[in-house]
Amino acid sequence: MIRILIVDDQSIVREGLSSLLQTQPDLEVVGEAANGQEAVERSLDLQPDVILMDIRMPIMDGLAAIRLLVKQAPAIKILVLTTFDDEEYITQAIANGAQGYLLKDTPSAELSQAIRLVNKGYSQMGPGLLAKAVASDVSHDVEKSELISQQLAQLTAREKEVLQLIATGYSNKEISAQLYIVERTVKNHVNSILHALNLRDRTQAAIFAHKYWHEIFK
After folding, report:
1. Sheet of 50-53: strands edge to edge?
2. How many whole angstroms separate alpha carbon 216 and alpha carbon 196?
3. What are the start-end ranges of the H helices in the chain?
4. Terminal CA-to-CA distance of the chain, rounded, Å?
5. Residue 12 and residue 35: Cα distance in Å, rounded?
């Protein structure tokens, strides 16, 4: 059972999401919060598996809450669910530690599946949102380019193959089948990639790969 905390400043949204998710046999809504501060407090108390986090809220917004939760409860996965598709929000949410970013018009079946995948450690980005996150940071000063080159030099050819598949949206199981290697080896490659590129999770890895696609896969 995946335990979920819903964070949104509109009670009608919280109630609607709760009713929707409770129809799924493997999903359980264990609590709700109306702002970022409540989200942090309730998360530390309830220890949910996944948090559905809105962005714009009173007292403390979702971005600040994500930043605090990553420090105080790093095991909890955070999936942003909002109406705002601003590049700045998307980039900041992922940089702060969210595993995914979806819009509230996401079909219910896709939302439920996204929760399951995020709970397993996979990234989830709504249609077109990954491209916005990539486009929001296109500066290439000399110092940054040198750092990127040094990081990429640490990747093996196999790790680059794995990174390319991560960026394409493949799960570890799918990568395993595609490259004819066991899933444990895929996990080891993913961990090595994150360490070499100084990234937190697969979401950041996917954004990094798209941002520097030509440098990595030339």
Report:
1. 27-33, 2-7, 50-53, 77-82, 100-103, 124-125
2. 13
3. 11-21, 36-46, 62-72, 87-96, 108-119, 129-135, 142-153, 157-168, 172-179, 183-197, 202-211, 213-216
4. 43
5. 14
The closest of 67, 193, 181, 172 to 122, measured between CA atoms, is 172
What the chain holds in terms of domains, given with CATH numbers, is 2-133 (3.40.50.2300), 155-217 (1.10.10.10)
User: Rounded distance, CA 54 to CA 115, Å?
Assistant: 15
Of 111, 108, 98, nearest in space to 61 by CA? 98
Query: Stretch 93-117: mean pLDDT, rounded?
Result: 92
CA atoms within 13 A on the CB side of 137: 18
Q: What's the pTM? A: 0.72
pLDDT of 126-175, one tens digit each?
A: 766 666 666 555 544 444 667 788 888 899 999 999 999 998 888 899 99
Q: What is the mean pLDDT of the chain?
A: 89
Instruction: Identify residue 216 by its one-letter amino acid code.
Output: I
HSE (CB half, 13 Å, CA atoms) of 58? 3
